[in-house]
Amino acid sequence: MNFKLAGLIAALIVIVISAVVIYTIFSSLDSIVKNAIEYHGTQIMDSRVTLEAVEFSLTEGRGTLRGVRVDNPDGFSSEPAFTLGEITLDIDVNSLASSPLVIEKVHVLSPSVRFETDESGRSNLDVLTEKIRSFSDTSEPAEDGGEETRLRI
Question: Are 61 and 92 in contact (CB under 8 A)?
């Protein structure tokens, strides 16, 4: 076998493997994002965060989260602190590589918030907010020293 034919076969194998990897990533993107939101949301809020479904269309710049639920923190009822039936973001795909990132539309369906206080008078929403702030305070700043991403909604 000559070297040109071997090189061509190797290139074809790399292309096929790359196509399979790309297809696998894009076909499972929704579940990857769902798992990431549930895992990191739970870590940040120190309360369980769950979603029923996630749908992303990268070409349209649209993402939809369905059945969002954030449980109450410890010391409060077993009812969720809040739920969202659906939240959809439409992003200007042309702004993805620039600042500000342009969010053209935020659409929220069926929001429900449960406000409770504990024996000390603290509310469940205050506790969740404190958890988010304490996580933000301990997060390390970007190392690249680049400009902060700005949003326009």
Answer: yes
What is the DSSP secondary-structure string of 84-108? EEEEEEEE-GGGTTSSSEEEEEEEE
* Spacing of C-alpha 10 from chain mean position: 37
Residues 152 and 75: their CA atoms lie apart, in Å, by 37
Query: CA nearest 68: which of 79, 53, 78, 90?
Result: 53
pLDDT in tens, 35-61: 999 999 999 999 999 999 999 887 788
pLDDT in tens, 108-147: 999 999 999 998 999 999 999 999 888 877 656 555 555 6
